[in-house]
Each structure stands twice: as C-alpha cells, then as structure tokens.
Amino acid sequence: MKDKKKTFLLLLCNIIPALAGLLSFQGGFISDVLVILLTPLPISLNFMLAGKIKIMILWDIIFLILSGTEIIFSCYLYQWNVASDKEGFLVTWLFFMIWLALSIFLILGSLLCSFIIRKKRVPALFTAGILLLDIILSCSYVYMTIVPGAYENTAVIISSGGDYTCNGSYEGWINDNDSVVIRNRKSGKKKKYAEAFWGICPEQIALGNQHFYVMGEDDLGCFIVKTDYAGNIIARRKMKSIDRIGCQNGVLLLFTDNLLSADDFMAETPFSFPVNKYLPEADFETGEPIRCKSDGNGICQIGDLKLYDHGKYFSSNPVLPFYQGTDCYTIDARETAEQTEQSRWRECVKLMLQEKGLSGYNCEINEYQNGNDIYGIARIREAILGIEDRKLKKSIAYKISGKTGELSILAEKSNVFIIISSDDSLTYLDHNKIMQEELSTGKTDHLGTVISSSEENFIINGAYFSFLNSDKEQKWICWTRSDSKLPDMKE
User: Fold this and answer.
1) 31 in helix, strand or coil?
2) How confident is the model at residue 408 (pLDDT cuts 50, 70, 90)?
C-alpha cells in the first residue's frame, strides 16, 4: 500500500507541470514559464522518493516526455494562432531550450548526488538547493510580470485639440457624458451645457475671443454651433465632412481627413493641428469654408496666421525634412537598423542612448514639434538578465534643432516619470506627486496628486494636460511657463 501511494505521488508530481501548462495556455508564454518554474518540483521528489537510481531515471524520463510534449504543443499553438512569423517561432523555441537546459542540469545533479555516498544530509541539501532555485525563479517571475512597479502602465497621449481647448480668457472641454463646460479663467466660474442644449452630440470645441464653437452630429449630419460666452446660440450651420475644428486669430480652422489615405501619417502636436479649410468668424453665418492654398514658398497666409503646406494638409508648424511627425514610438534594443524604419531624427535619439550606455535597453519615446524644433522624452525601461521589464529606469528630456540636427539634453532623472518638457520647464511624476521644475533655477512646485503612479494617462492638449486626481476628478494643469497669460492651475 505504501509503494502504491508513493507511485501515485510520483505520477502526480510528474504530471503537474504539463497539466498546469495546458490549463494556463491563453495564446502567450505563461504556460511555458509555468512549466519551467515547476520543473524543480518533480525532479527533486523523484530524487527523494524513487529509492533506486534506475527508478529515479525512469520517472525523470516520464517527466521529460510529458513536459516536453506540452511545451512543444504550446509552441505550436502560439506559432500558428498568435505569432505566425519567424521571430515568434524562434522565441517560442527559446522557452523549450531554457526548460530542457534546466531539466538536464537538475537531473544530472540528482544523479551525481545519488552516486555519492548517501548520507542523510546529501539529499536534504540537494532538495533544499532545488527548492531555493525554484523560489528564486518564481519570485523573479512574479516581480517582472505580476507586481506593478511605479509608472509601469503610465502613458502620455499628445492631442492637438478637439475635446479641450483654451484661450486668454476661457477654457472649455467636453465631459464624458457629452456635456460642454466653459470656465472663466479669471473668476473660475463654470457654465455647463447639456447635450440637449446643442441638439447634437458634442465632439469638438473651439474657443474664439467673443464666441465659442461646438461641432457634433445628429441624424441629419454634421453641424457647428456658434455661441457667445453668455450662453446664447448665435448660429447653427450644417457642414460637410468636418472632422476637427480650431480657432485662432479670429479665424475658424477646419480639417477633414477624407483626403488622407491609410498610409498617410499625421502626428499630434500640442500647439498645432491639421487644417485644410478656414472660415473667418465674422463670415460664419453667411460665408462658405475656403480651401487653403499655398504660395510659391509653401505658405498659406490668413491675416496674421501663417500656415505651412505639408502636402495633404496645412499646419502652423513648418515642414522639417524627413520628419514624419511621429509623436509616440519605441526603440527596441533587439532590433537592427534594417528591421526598424529609421529617420534622421530617430538616429539622433539612438545615438544619444548609445553615448549614455543605454542602447541595450528598450525605450519609449514621446515627441512633439514646436516651430523648427523637436522636443522629446525618452523613458528607458529596466531589464533583468536581458529580459524586458516594464519598470522605469530613467527618463531623459531632450530637444533636437530642426535646422542643425543637434540634440541637447534638457533634463535627466532616475526613477521619475517625465511627462513633458519645454525650454524653460519640466513636468514630471514623482511617485504620486506631479511636480514642475524651472530648468534655469531648479525651483520645483507641486501641481497635483494622482490616484496611482503605476497606471495613469496624461493627455497633452496645448499648454495644458489632464489627469485624474486623488479625488477621481479630471484636472487640467499648465505644463509650460513660457506663456505668461496662462493662469496658475494648481490644486
């Protein structure tokens, strides 16, 4: 009876890794990792319970067949269902080789101990060593994949307008429930307009000096509603194919993306947005939108506003040669230049990382163009033994001159999530606190507090960015000190 219980226990232990791998397969590598982590358990029990060396070897072979079959099967499923490319194939088989190397190492170790004179402490020390290795591997896996680190899922989204905008006197935004809020920046008083007030579902908002504009749709099509700041609707006009609106210098700026193909890329920038039509505010009631046309220098001059021709749209940002306007991208340390689409500007960033000894780490980039310069944040993520980790290692704020191609470092911080920067200031997240640093003096101000530093989305729009504060309220904060007209928006 005792032998039957021992045999059943050995069979159960040798089946567990393969069974756990099959049950946990969800189109990823978690099943392979689980098999690897559980590998020391059956080998150590085979060593302790088998008694004879031949029986121990037999159970080890059973374990190798069962677990090896599971890993090959999961590699096959992952290859054909998830990652049907050469890289996916190589990565899945890498897990198999890691498991096989670990299994052979532990089996040879148990055989070596079996041939040594069996003192009581030999099996105990060997088993303790195997269990210690298992604990170390398990803790590493939990640390890298389960335990959230500061800023692990925190992200920055750069937007060039639409649901939030501001001018010298007012700011306006669209709430999640489709109501429109207009706030007087001097008095702080707010006015809230429900969806029924407009007769449309608000999608975009633009602020002029005397009026503001709300664009949305109903069953009849797309409409723009002109309203004064006292809350009186001045005009309601149906428009054709308008996707984005803005207002500058007394001109309503319009954009429709039906001219763009699927291959066309258009970056989002805080201070500029795409335009292909315009309409003076004074002509809103009776005039028709005018299509932007460039002169011989590629410029469309509308009063005091200068727009640059980017091909299929115009922008207040000039054209930078070979700059695709990528506002967010990643640099993978494992990819070669041939595998990654390179540009003159991305090469500047990669060279900076190489000079700082950070080229071996994965890096996420946020960039925006402002005039002839490119401003960016490089966030370098940790890696353990070459394995990628989402935890933040360092943040670097930089600026690239569009005229000379020279990259200069604005700021560099460890274990701090830099949100965005300008020539004069740096805004960053330090644990749960949003801080702003004046670059010339190093003076810092506390601007706000977030709920969690491990998961927060900062939406950049103009000179402001939004976040959810500790009371779960959406707040807008000014991130640049260069515009003296912007009021203090501290909590």
Assistant:
1) helix
2) very high
What is the full DSSP assignment across 236-273? Answer: EEEESS--EEEEETTEEEEE-GGG--TT------SS--
Alpha carbon distances (Å) from 289 to 206, 245, 247, 302, 315: 16, 12, 13, 13, 17
Residue located via tokens 């699927």: 262
| Rounded-to-integer distance, Cα 403 and Cα 341, Å | 22
What value, to the nearest 5°, has the Cα angle with vertex 217 and ends 214 and 219? 150
Identify whether the C-beta of residue 437 lies closer than 8 Å to the C-beta of residue 416: no
Q: Which residue has the tokens 């105990």?
A: 124
* HSE (side-chain half, CA atoms, 13 Å) at 348: 22
Q: Is the pLDDT of residue 383 over 70?
A: no
Give Cα 393 to chain centroid, integer Å. Answer: 15
Query: Looking at the predicted structure, is the pLDDT value of residue 106 above 90?
Result: no
Q: Give CA separation, 193 vs 107, 190, 209, 467, in Å.
A: 72, 10, 19, 22
For residue 285, give both structure tokens: 């009631």
d(Cα 436, Cα 453) in Å, to the nearest integer?
Answer: 16
Beta bridge pairs of residue 251 = 248, 280
The angle subtended at Cα 87 by Cα 106 and Cα 34, nearest 5°, is 35
Indicate if the pLDDT at residue 301 is higher than 80.
Answer: yes
pLDDT band at 248 (very low <50, low <70, confident <90, very high): confident
